[in-house]
Amino acid sequence: MQISSLKLTPKRIIIALVVIALAGGIWRALSAKRTQQLAASDAAQTQGQIEFSQNDVFTAEVREITQDLAVSGTVKALNYAVIKARVAGEVKEIKVREGDSVSAGQVLARIDPLEYQRRFEQAQEQASAAKSQMEIAQRQWDTNKALVDQGFISKTALDNSLASFQGAVASHKAAIAGADVARKSLDDSVLRAPFSGVIAVRAAQLGERVGIDAKVLELVDLRQLEVEAPLSPSDSLDIKMGQTARLQIEDRADLVTAHVTRMSPSAQAGSRSVLVYLTLDKPAGLRHGLFAKGTLGLVNSQVMAVPLTSVRTDHPSPYVQVVEKVGETMQVRHQTVEMGIRGHDASGKDPQEWVAVKGLAAGRVVLKGQVGAMREGMAVRFTTASPTASSPATAVVTPAASAPR
Questions:
Q1: Measuring CA to CA, how many Å separate 396 from each of 165, 309, 319?
Q2: Cα–Cα–Cα angle for 239, 245, 249, nearest 5°?
Q3: Which residue has the higher pLDDT, 67 or 126?
Q4: Which helix (H) or strand (E) holds 282?
Q5: Which CATH number does 49-66+300-382 carry?
Q6: Which of 1, 62, 209, 247 has its CA 20 to 30 A from that of 256?
Q7: Region class of 303: left (phi > 0), else alpha (psi between -120 and 50), else beta
């Protein structure tokens, strides 16, 4: 049997080239698709991770916190006086206005002294006349005493002269007392500062006629300020001298410290509240009459505590978000906790509010509150090495990426 050899015709060569070209195109398309899938997988894995800095987390540890009691009240000057007119008359002079600083004993105002000057002079003249009558009565008594010894007058006449002398002495003393009263009225026409301070209110004007006990000025000493805070009777039982309070004055951002220095021994009638007085440590820049609110530290406790903002309540039970290593990745886990007492760091170095928790072990890495809600199981990574219990991160910053809910 004779087998004829296959002849390579131009048609067959073209068909073979087309087949080879198609096979190469298919291979290149499959390679490109595989490369695209791998890139998409890498991108999806990268997008599924949240990047945190050391400042977005902290390490749970036992710390001493101070249990707090909410307080509010009015800032008052320890030395505060309403300067009133002690005598009636026309205001002849007022030397100060609101905001003026004065020293103790300084003349602040004068009431027309003419009437009181004349009354004082009248009282002085009456005292002089009474003194003259007393001297006459004394001479008469001395003379009658000598005459009785010689037998020229009776004992009854001597007794009468003695009574007249004693009456003259009493009249003289009464006249002197009247002169002293008139002098005091004259002195009261001049109003002086009882202590050094600042004029808060000027209630009278020049030329105005004021009555006795009419308010003329108000004086405050801003060097010593305190907060008068009313407490319920039950809360007042835990108050002790020297306890520290952190107060916010009229919604200012910075807090001021104060200490319990006095407490009323009885409850107020009607409201049944007990007044507690907190002396401000640094009163500079504050004013009498401002409103203050804050917390008063009662009891120090050693507890496992986390910032209150780190505890989330969008689940049926409160929880914190912890970061733990699962395999080769770091993932977010939701750790259910039981909340306890609230307070502030007893050292005073961290102003935020802390809460005691149960169910959280020491050394766990916890996300701070400003990070927001993270999906459980979400992969995370850190810009630096993972935090440890020996190097907790405490600063608060915005996280590097936002997390999907």
A1: 94, 12, 20
A2: 130
A3: 126
A4: none
A5: 2.40.420
A6: 62
A7: beta
